[in-house]
Amino acid sequence: MNPAGPAANRINTLWWLMFGVATFVCLLIGALVAIAIFRRRGPDLRESPPWAKGMVYGGGVAFPLVVLAALAVLVLHDIGALSDPGNQRLTVDAIGHQWRLQIRYPQQGVATANDLHIPVGQPVEVRLTTIDVLHSFWVPQITAKTDMIAGQVNHMTIEASRAGVYRGQCAEFCGVQHANMIFYVIADPPGAFQQWLSRQQQGPSTPTDPTLLRGQQVFESAACAACHAIKNTSANGRVGPDLSNIGGRLSIGAGTLPNTPGALGGWIINAQTLKPGNRMPPMQLPADDLQALIAYLESLK
Ligand code: CUA
To answer: Per-residue DSSP letters for 217-250?
Structure first.
């Protein structure tokens, strides 16, 4: 109900129009029912008044036909307008996993997860698919729902008309953690977005701080690197989300927890207690190594 993009604007207007028409029809029917109940009957109940036939054909057939047909035309028109690609200059891949969103900027070679950065006021093409079960991409303040289907790529255009963070939600039941499949669309002014994108293209540099360096070594030598990738390191796992900018993300576990050192530590030690059924196994690490690992991951932005 608080649209922040042209597609959501259109849907919002259509919603209010349909709400208005439905309210009018509901009140009209209510009034007619009330008249029928309370109207004083004539002496002969078998004789219907002369206007009764007109009421049945006019109010019962013609009126709904006209109203529903008019709404159907408007809806079809809006569906057509919503699938208009517009002048897209940027393409993003969003790939559903149980239960997170893998995000790629294919032209720039950037990989991230759950936080979808876009420039304000520019239509962005999103190519949607899934590697496992059905998911659905939905950012209510920006755009309509589109299903993510295995073996098929669905295209949609998203555009935010003002800067901000817009919560997205998987809208197709996809397993026990469906409700914890949350993502965010982060709309930044074009300059700030380009800065973010170039920083991601470069990737993190090798830390000079001894604690952070230790953290990177722990990441590369422990089991982390088997499943996760971090740009410019030897970690190249493909099972879990890419962590090249994990420290800059809004949440941990696709919206399950805020991105704080404490939450990240808890997630590393035993993510199964926080989001049961996700694919991250519990990790046993010496306390010093864990602290260094958390500091290192939080430094990646
Ligand atoms: Cu993915 Cu529900």
So the answer is: HHHHHSTHHHH-B-TTSS-B--SS---TTGGGSS
